[in-house]
Specification:
With 100 residues, the protein is mostly helical. The chain has one domain. 74% of the residues lie in helices and 0% in strands. It is built from four helices and no strands. Helix 2 packs antiparallel against helix 3.
Length: 100
Amino acid sequence: MSRRKFVLSFEFVWLMFWASVFLMLLSGLGKAFVWETSDIFLILAPVFFFPVWVILLHEIAVMRSNNRIFWLVVMLITPPLAALAYLLQRERLIRLPFLK
């Protein structure tokens, strides 16, 4: 049996990120309008976000960049905002010459 490297597309990571944001917003609406099922959304949002956070932390830790420490610290302090910022800046960071 041959060993193949596991590759995860970043379109899927984006989908998981936006699913967690949507579930969090739905949970907030549920709390505001006193829905009985709002707790389910509140539980599911971190379930969708945690794998995204781990994937991004791993990618940042492996990245050979001058600002790797900055991204790791920011990901630990403000995970949702840093994940969004990193996902938006990822293509530009990959194209930098010192990452090759």
